[in-house]
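_Full entry_
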Amino acid sequence: MHVVLDARKYFDFGIGTYIRNLVPQIAASEKLTLLVAPGDADRIDRIPGVTTKINTSGKYSLRELFSIAEDANTSQADIFHSPHYTVPFGLRMPCVTTIHDILHIRGREYFSLAQQAYARMMVAHACRASDAVLVDSEFTKRELLTVFRMAERRIHVIHLGVAPLYSIHPPKEELEAFRAKYRFPAETILYTGSLKPHKNIPTLISAFVRLKHRDGCRLVFSGEPVLENREVRSLIEANSLSGSVIDLGQLSRRELSLAYHAATVVVLPSLYEGFGFSVLEAMAAGTMAIGARAASIPEIMGDAGCLFDPHSPDDLATAITKSLDDAPFRTAAIEKGFANVQRFSWTKCADETMHVYRNLL
């Protein structure tokens, strides 16, 4: 079976993680062609059985809606897979689309009318044009069925996985060197990801303000640099937190794993998530996970970790305090986290994805 995958978002946050972990799994048994952005061709890991083909169309451009199909058709593939909702016109093969969430449609307060209209048009087209639609969670399936008229049988819930890297405890010397490099104190509250409005960072900062009295407790950000985000930086400065915040910026995958292992707790305060990698990656690393009681997060966390009201800084502060101070509670949650994370693997995700491919052929 020859699969063409639109991999132009190979290095993005969430979708990039999906692509990077799915590619080697599919390539282990199938022929795979990746359509990649011009600047990414030399940066992508060389994997046996994977061919890269450069596509020069801009992301979310009019041209991509036709050039992607042309590249896929000339590759003479059996299946085309779009890992997000941009599905080209003119494909001459079955199409599988992964729709991770419909935030641009449901989160109206975060986007312009033009952005909302574009997203609605493209997701509606993807739902019509795709032979199968993959979603990361039951939550996103419900969202699609609520907003769009489509047959439920065409939607396949396939949970994402957790990279094995996070489960492997690093050598003590390497972990201590990482702690020293970034000046991690005894208590660290880690957030990893972007700083987009739906990520609910103000609630996290407001909760941390309530913990300022704790000596040696720090709020750590990894992902989008805090100092380059005017709104978040202003919140930190307005609350006199500059000395209590550690900004790691975007880390390598290895260093991100070290950050999870070095943290005391990991918090995902988002108001909207189609999946939510960080709580699972924390569980895999054996670190306490705290997640918002919103969207797909309770589904992914299961009975592990700790849920809080995402609109209440007090509730989050209480959850963090309990997680830091109540060692038996934290230990029990970590043990449940180890069990919960076993539900998610990239091998299982790829197997279920390829099962959908084969059914279409």
Observations:
- The longest strand covers residues 187-193.
- The CA atoms of residues 136 and 159 lie 5 Å apart.
- The chain has a mean pLDDT of 96.
- The chain has two domains: 2-161+345-360, 164-343.
